[in-house]
Specification:
By secondary structure, the protein is α+β, with helices and mostly antiparallel strands. The chain has helices spanning 5-48, 80-85, 99-102, 151-171; strands at residues 60-67, 70-76, 118-121, 131-133, 140-143.
């Protein structure tokens, strides 16, 4: 039993078909991993919103193609940084692993973030778990900040956990 011309042609055709499928498989892999990131970030942001104190304009989590080979999970909204990294000295024990990289985190938000509490004018926002109306000061809220949601950080953790499993599903099919 030897190698035949027809056998070589079949092998070449199979290799070409596999090569041609790689771009689609790469795109599938990135999209599946991004879905995990979006789900995780949405869940984590939704868990911290009830304890956030302040006017909330929402967080929009989605994906953005950076180029043909890079798909990013992104979060946008006026309070994303505040919610991701937290604020207030009461939340140091629940810090964000990347806070030092960005120079943010509990105790660093604004000029009063390292105080026991601070006040802000109520503009119709919700009053979070660590906030309350300021006694004797109608329309003013007293807050001690909020813990970090770590939503985007945790999205990255979950994506990394699933890379090998999802890649095997896609590339071995």
């Amino acid at each position: 039993m030897g190698i035949t011309v027809e056998g070589l042609k079949e092998a070449i055709d199979a290799l070409k078909a596999y090569r041609d499928s790689l771009d689609d498989k790469r795109k599938q892999l990135l999209e599946r991993l991004a879905e995990i990131g979006v789900e995780t970030a949405n869940l984590r942001f939704s868990e911290v919103i009830p304890i956030y104190s302040g006017v909330f304009d929402g967080v929009d989590v989605g994906v953005m193609w950076m180029d043909d080979h890079t798909l990013a999970v992104k979060a946008s909204g006026g309070q994303v940084g505040f919610l991701e990294f937290g604020a207030g000295i009461h939340h140091y024990g629940q810090g964000h692993p990347k806070a030092a990289v960005f120079g943010t985190g509990p105790g660093t938000y604004g000029p009063r973030g390292n105080q026991e509490y601070w006040y802000y004018k109520d503009r119709g926002g919700q009053i979070g778990e660590w906030s309350q109306p300021a006694l004797g000061h109608p329309g003013t809220i007293r807050t001690s900040g909020n813990p970090p949601s770590r939503a985007m950080y945790q999205a990255g953790v979950e994506i990394r956990k699933k890379i090998t499993e999802i890649a095997k599903e896609i590339y071995e099919s």
